[in-house]
Structures are given as structure tokens and as C-alpha cells.
Backbone:
């Protein structure tokens, strides 16, 4: 089961590079021991395991940064556990009740994980990717910039200055555009119809001859590149495919369990709810 570590700085880990370096040196000089709490060791390996089991934390910080921030938390956790053991908390009804709930949750989780693992195989993931490749159809996409203004006359003046080389596109964009100029690559369905229709007709390294009117105002368009879309490589979408298959597998497992079970449901008045 994954351990969850609550940081005092909300969800963003504070980067403490100097402290991280100090802790790292300490750990290396003490044969992988991160701390000793009342005679009990906390190892660097334990810290690493906690880090690896938390994808959200890994996405926010390096292990060194996590180490610096989490070491005190691990020490405090160890102190609390030692105090709980000394107070014989494990023998209390409250502990036993929560332990039973936790065991039930872990059992459910492990069961689903094993079932999903059996169904979402590497072969199945590759099969879905091959289906994606077979169905993939290249589309035209362009890489473009635009200058967005409210006034048509201003848009025409901008086009005139660019054509006459009195100013560059980027200079006009910086001076006049109400929107971020760089749009990157896009296919027709991504943009509003009027904009897409104009952009898709243009060739590489060309400007729009006339302003393009949309609901947002008047656009001066510059198409930097034209190409066809390509299928994404397997490595880029493998995780996405696996996640989608896993979600579907869980839904299938739950349906199968329901279909193979005898279930009776009752409303708040004790009346039996008829199955649909």
C-alpha cells in the first residue's frame, strides 16, 4: 500500500538544494542510514522506496529535494509509532476496528490489481496500438502565428506594413496582438471554422492577404509550416493505452461480479428494490 506524506507547504514541495546536499552526504557517510531515532534506524533505502511509490511527488521534485523535505516527517512518524507501541495502542478496540477496515480495503485493492494485471497484458496493449495504427488517417496540419486585433482597418494596415517590409510580423504582433501570437501546429477541427478555412488554404511561409474575421476579432495569419500528422510512437501512448484498458478491466470485473452474484436491495422503508 502506498504511503502518503503530508507536507506543510500544501502540494508543492519546497526546493531546498543546500539542505538536500547536506543530508545526502550524511547518508552516504553513515552506510545508508538517514537517521537513528531512539536506537531505530531510518535508511536511505526506505526514503527512496517512499519516493518511488508516489508518482505525484516524483513529478514535483527530485529525490534529493524530497529527501530534504521528508526526513523530518519520517523521523516524526517513527517517534509517533514508538510512542503508540509503548502505549500498547495495537491492543485497543479503536486500533483493531481501523485495522479490520484497512485489511478489507487492501484485500479489495490487491484483488483488483491482480485481476487487471492478468487482463491488461503487454500483448493486449500492443494489440490496441496496432489497431490504432491500422485506423490512423493522416491529416493536414499547419504551424501558424497570428495577430489578433479588434479593428479591420488596423488589420489591413498591419498586412500592408508587413508586405512592404516596413515592419516584421513579430514586431506587429508584439505591438498590436490581443492574443499570444504562436499557435504551434494544429489541424482544422482545433480552430474556429473561419480561421481554419483560411489557414488550411495557405502555403508555407505565406501571410494572409486579407484579415480573417472570427468571433474574436480580425486575424492576420502567418503559416510557418505545412505537414501531415503522423501516428504517435508506441512509447508515447503506451501508458495512456494501459490506463484506458485498466479502467475498462475494472468496469468489466465489477459487472461480472454483479452478474454472478445474488443481490437483494432495499429502500429506506425496507421495501425491496426490483432489479432493472
Residues:
Amino acid at each position: 500500500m502506498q504511503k502518503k506524506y503530508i507536507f506543510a507547504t500544501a502540494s508543492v514541495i519546497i526546493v531546498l538544494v543546500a539542505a538536500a546536499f547536506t543530508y545526502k552526504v550524511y547518508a552516504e557517510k553513515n552506510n545508508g542510514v538517514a537517521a537513528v531515532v531512539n536506537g531505530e534506524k531510518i535508511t536511505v533505502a526506505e526514503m527512496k522506496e517512499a519516493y518511488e511509490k508516489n508518482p505525484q511527488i516524483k513529478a514535483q521534485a527530485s529525490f534529493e529535494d524530497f529527501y530534504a523535505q521528508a526526513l523530518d516527517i519520517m523521523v516524526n512518524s517513527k517517534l509517533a509509532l514508538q510512542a503508540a507501541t509503548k502505549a500498547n495502542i495495537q491492543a485497543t478496540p479503536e486500533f483493531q476496528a481501523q485495522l479490520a477496515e484497512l485489511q478489507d480495503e487492501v484485500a479489495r485493492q490487491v484483488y483488483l490489481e491482480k485481476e487487471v494485471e492478468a487482463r491488461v497484458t503487454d500483448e493486449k496493449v500492443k494489440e490496441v496500438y496496432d489497431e490504432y495504427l491500422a485506423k490512423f488517417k493522416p491529416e493536414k496540419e499547419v504551424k501558424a502565428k497570428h495577430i489578433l486585433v479588434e479593428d479591420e482597418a488596423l488589420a489591413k494596415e498591419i498586412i500592408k506594413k508587413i508586405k512592404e517590409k516596413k515592419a516584421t510580423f513579430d514586431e506587429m504582433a508584439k505591438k498590436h496582438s490581443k492574443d499570444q501570437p504562436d499557435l504551434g501546429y494544429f489541424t482544422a477541427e482545433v480552430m474556429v471554422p473561419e480561421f481554419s478555412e483560411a489557414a488550411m488554404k495557405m502555403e508555407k511561409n505565406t501571410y494572409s492577404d486579407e484579415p480573417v474575421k472570427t468571433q474574436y476579432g480580425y486575424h492576420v495569419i502567418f503559416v510557418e509550416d505545412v505537414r501531415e500528422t503522423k501516428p504517435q510512437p508506441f512509447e508515447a501512448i503506451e501508458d495512456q493505452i494501459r490506463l484506458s484498458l485498466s479502467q475498462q478491466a475494472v468496469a468489466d470485473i465489477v459487472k461480472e461480479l454483479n452478474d454472478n452474484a445474488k443481490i437483494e436491495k432495499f429502500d429506506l422503508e425496507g421495501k425491496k428494490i426490483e432489479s432493472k
Notes: Confidence is low (pLDDT under 50) at residues 1-27. Residues 67 and 239 are 27 Å apart (CA to CA).
